Amino acid sequence: MVENKFYIGIDLGWKEKRTTGVCVLNAKKNKILLKDVFGKSVLRTITPYLKNTDVIAIDAPLTRGRGKGKMRLYEKFLSTSIFRKERVAPIPPALMSEFHKFALEIVEKLEKRGFVLGINLIEVFPTLIRKICREEVCLRGSTTENQESALLCAQIALLHSQFQTRWLGYKDGFLFLPEASFWKKEWQEKFYQAWKGRPRLKYHYLITNLFSQ
């Protein structure tokens, strides 16, 4: 039954600190689990739900970039002036190398459990989502900042299962966002202008389906 399907959101934190938020939602958006855990405990925490989990959404760099600061192409695009001005530019993975290494370790272990990156294991960015999306998209009801981000990640996991997400990226990594119908009108325009005004040579390989119907 659909009610028994789970959607997991993880706001990944440091391996040896209790800074990882975990949320498990069912199809009715009831919170089965919402807590902060040590990063090294995250897989043990979610394992009881994995068999019936449709999608896992994680806030962390889940792939390796090759550019300056080890940034992926989509991260470079989100570091352009419009996004810097709104304080939603991503942090270069090179500035948090141990955290990035841990994120890749989590991906590897989840892939061994049958999850496929970009299909039912997706990378999300709650900081940007909160900025661009209407309030009703961002579920509330958590007690810590980590839990709130995990709750939002789980919501995006649910939307992804309903084909209501879009992607931005290249073969070095894709970011998943709610489809534009969930966005604030001002951000639909801002994002479109940023995309339209991007240097075509620099971002020749960057692709998105954000503007597809």
SSE order and pairing:
Layout: E1 6-11, E2 20-26, E3 31-37, H1 42-50, E4 53-59, H2 73-77, H3 81-85, H4 97-112, E5 121-123, H5 126-132, H6 145-161, E6 165-170, E7 173-178, H7 185-196, E8 207-208
CATH class: Alpha Beta
- The CATH architecture category equals 2-Layer Sandwich
Q: How many structural domains in the coordinates?
A: 1
Helix/strand structural class: alpha/beta
Contiguous helical run count: 7
Assembly form of the protein? single chain
Rg, Cα atoms, Å: 16 Å
Mean pLDDT: 92
Q: Give the termini distance in whole angstroms.
A: 30 Å
CATH fold topology: Nucleotidyltransferase, domain 5
The SSE order reads EEEHEHHHEHHEEHE
Q: Order of strands in the sheet with the most strands? A: 3-2-1-4-5
- Helix share bin: 25-40%
Shape: globular
- The counted number of beta strands is 8
Describe this structure in words.
- The protein has 213 residues and is of the alpha/beta class.
- It has a single domain (2-208), classed as Nucleotidyltransferase, domain 5 (2-Layer Sandwich).
- The protein has helices spanning 42-50, 73-77, 81-85, 97-112, 126-132, 145-161, 185-196, and strands at residues 6-11, 20-26, 31-37, 53-59, 121-123, 165-170, 173-178, 207-208.
- The strands form 2 sheets. A 5-stranded mixed β-sheet has the order 3-2-1-4-5. The protein has a 3-stranded antiparallel β-sheet with strand order 7-6-8.
- A hairpin with an 8-residue loop joins strand 1 (6-11) and strand 2.
- The longest helix has 17 residues, at 145-161.
